[in-house]
Write a structure and sequence with these properties.
17 helices; 10-stranded mixed beta sheet; single chain; alpha+beta; 440 residues; two-stranded antiparallel ribbon
Length: 440
């Protein structure tokens, strides 16, 4: 008897694509050998194996957030955002915010949801600090939150939400550092390349040390452009090959254009349990639509640029715009330096990116951003990271518990829907794409 095997639809096309893009897949899925050969020696220079794992007390809080929306008939949206800070001892700080609006496009709606989640995390973290926390763990990068592109959100009533976001975040960090609280960002799936870029810059400085000063500065300048304009940077470097620049420098530039993130490099090199020497990052400029706000520029120049970036907010706020924009500028300037390291808690485990807010600037190695030593506030944060580790599936038990408690479900959103109708004493119908409704 013949047995027919069911083949999933499109499987034949998938096989064709795999065969056609074999090299591309190998570069992303594999590639450990090439990365290990190129970055192995560089990474060993800044890798430390000493990572203690001590018991963590109840004054450590983990913060996470979630949000979901109810799309209602007529094109409106009700956004419900929640955040929680939960301590090792079980104490909870809860935050919830409800916003109703008519979204104009999906991009602005998704941007507002992301910013609102983080904003509530900062408020929950601040209250945890006020309750006596010694360490606050946040899911995500602290530095990335400092470098959000400044732009208006094209939703009525929320155009200037970025002003509130930045003031709150800066206030949270300022209060935490004043009370000697370690604020720690933990990123499990990081696409960051800050470590790779710094390792390559270290090697590049060595390779160009013997070149003429003018050529050396030109090469270093081109490397500074490699991330934003890779094609132009590589073309500019080709013209310098006749001026004594080696092919090894060109190979380094090519590696800089590779998309391999720090976590992939660390995993490929396989140095085992330990951490990278922290990098010290400071915010000196931020992107504001098509402009760059260099925070050392005059206050008047920065205000002028913000008026061009936030025209609807300027019209909405009127005479109070300059006062609010001035507060945002001061908040941006008050952001503390951030120390960034990668931690491997067990042999073969994925690297975890750890960001820690610093009280001030610390000495670095030569011209690099690598710190000479690990600051006290980072040691405090690392102790919590190591002490709350429970294997690859539970890389931080406190953050996973916060995620579990704050995550919204379908049933939760339906309950919120009913509560809203009960309070308003009116029918709130779902949009046609999600047509479910309940009577209050």
């Amino acid at each position: 008897m013949d047995v027919k095997i069911s083949v999933p639809r499109f499987a034949d096309l998938l096989v064709e694509e795999v065969r056609r893009k074999r090299e591309e897949l190998a570069r992303v899925i594999g590639g450990e050998g090439d990365l290990r050969n190129y970055y192995g020696e560089l990474l060993r220079r800044v890798w430390m194996s000493d990572l203690s794992q001590d018991k963590v007390d109840g004054r450590v809080y983990g913060v996470d957030s979630s949000c979901d929306d109810i799309d209602v008939v007529g094109g409106g949206s009700i956004l419900i955002s929640r955040a929680i800070a939960v301590s090792v001892g079980g104490d909870e700080v809860r935050k919830l915010r409800l916003d109703a609006f008519f979204p104009r496009d999906i991009r602005d709606q998704e941007e507002l949801k992301r910013l609102m989640r983080e904003h509530l995390e900062h408020l929950a973290g601040l209250e945890a600090v006020e309750r006596g926390a010694e360490t606050v763990l946040i899911d995500g990068s602290l530095y990335a939150r400092m470098t959000h592109v400044l732009r208006e959100i094209n939703i009525d009533g929320y155009e200037d939400f970025m002003f509130e976001y930045i003031e709150t975040y800066a206030g949270f960090l300022r209060e935490a550092l004043k009370r000697n609280v370690a604020v720690v960002g933990v990123s499990k799936d990081s696409r960051s390349t800050v470590l790779k870029e710094e390792l390559l810059m270290l090697k590049l400085r060595e390779l160009v040390a013997s070149l003429e000063p003018s050529v050396r500065e030109t090469v270093l300048g081109l490397f500074g452009e490699i991330k934003r304009r890779p094609r132009e940077a590589l073309e500019g470097l080709r013209h310098l090959l006749k001026s004594g620049v080696s092919m090894e420098v060109y190979e380094l530039f090519r590696n800089a254009t590779s998309g391999a993130p720090d976590s992939k490099i660390i995993f490929s090199v396989g140095l085992g349990r330990g951490l990278s020497l922290p990098l010290q990052l400071s915010i000196e400029k931020v992107s504001a639509r098509v402009f760059e706000l260099v925070l050392s520029d005059s206050h008047e120049k920065l205000l002028g640029l913000l008026e061009r970036v936030f025209p609807a907010s300027r019209d909405k706020l009127g005479d109070s715009f300059q006062e609010k924009a001035s507060r945002m500028i001061e908040a941006l300037k008050s952001y503390p330096p951030i120390a960034v390291t990668y931690v491997v808690l067990e042999q073969g485990d994925d690297p975890i990116r750890v960001d820690v807010a610093l009280k001030g600037k610390y000495p670095t190695r030569g011209e690099s951003h690598f710190l000479e030593a690990i600051p006290e506030e980072m040691l405090k944060g690392l102790k919590s990271i190591a002490g709350l580790y429970a294997g690859p599936r539970s890389y931080n038990v406190l953050l996973l518990e916060a995620d579990k408690r704050v995550r919204t479900t379908h049933d939760t959103m339906e309950m919120y829907h009913r509560l809203i109708m009960q309070e308003l004493k009116t029918l709130v119908m779902h949009s046609r794409s999600d047509r479910r409704f309940f009577y209050p």
